[in-house]
Amino acid sequence: MKRNSLKMASAIFAVAISVSACNSGSKSTTTTDSTTTDTTITGSASTTAIKPAGPAPEWGKTIKPEMQAVIEKLVSYGDKPLETLSAVDARKNHTPTDAVMDLVKENNITIPAAKVDTMGKDIDVAGGKIHLRIYTPKTGSGPFPLIVYYHGGGFVIANLDVYNASAQGLAEQVGAVVVSVAYRLAPENKFPTAHNDAFAAYEWAVKNASTIKADPAKIAVVGESAGGNLAANVSIMARDKKIMIPVHEVLVYPIAQANMNTESYKMNANAKPLNKAMMAWFTQKYLNTMIEAQNPKISLVNANLKGLPPTTIITAEIDPLHDDGVMLADKLKAAGVKVDSKNYDGVTHEFFGMAIVVPEAKAAQAYAADQLKAAFK
User: Fold this and answer.
1) Domain 116-345+359-376 falls in which CATH fold?
2) Is position 225 annotated as part of the catalytic site?
3) Is 34 a catalytic residue?
4) Which of 33, 79, 197, 319 is catalytic?
């Protein structure tokens, strides 16, 4: 079921499957912003027991059964390893979102009706345009709190569809307008294009909040993986440019440093859906030279973190980037930033958007939503 996807990926948009995408490829060529064509799922972990077919993999002996079932489905597609492909071909690979969607169908899990409306908006940025997908609660008149959301994919793959579940899940659980940002991808657009696009989208959201039923005084940033790196950078840039700083940031397994020999990189070098080889591939595709890996925008642990907003960090046990999140939390605390963090055992990178089938994802989304609601008060 390789749906020719153009860029990044696939499936979770229309109705929001709380399933997040992976740092693996992509598959759907169309990106739809109108909820009239709902095709995803958003929501809560199902009462149907999702069980794996085989034993736990060697790289993940502690993996939870539901998480393992998602990985087994992903492996069953038989895609070539992402790190052996060109970026264009990598974007055609199946994603964890595809795996979740298929498990939902196979187990007859009910897809809840969306509690948000969506619309698309193109905005001008330096050197081009980027697309935003705006999620607005169907109930209430606003102005609503505002979340600017950045998807993952190593700066190279994935798209708004792949990460729809995360964005929609946050909009529904927080009762907020969510602006999901389709920043330009590498290698077509090298560093720091994604970082500059991310900040341009944030500036647009601050300036245009009132036109999308949002309150610019209650704005937060959220990102997963590469998007977690972008969200933190947006807070830093807002501080440095002296514009409104987010009241909170939620960083889900963020890329935060360049050393690929941390304990979690060693332990999870062969994990799925993200492994060490893929991280090296992403780095090479996005950066102009490997020296840039030490740039504070990539290695957040080297950045000036003073004066940043209270931060929530979510990590996964079976993830090369686990220690990135821990190291960043320590650096933020040392800089005087209030940090709240949680690690989720038995799950892998990309678990956050999988609330429809993975209980830990449901818990992590609820935790993030609670943190954001408290910040918006």
Assistant:
1) Rossmann fold (3.40.50)
2) yes
3) no
4) 319
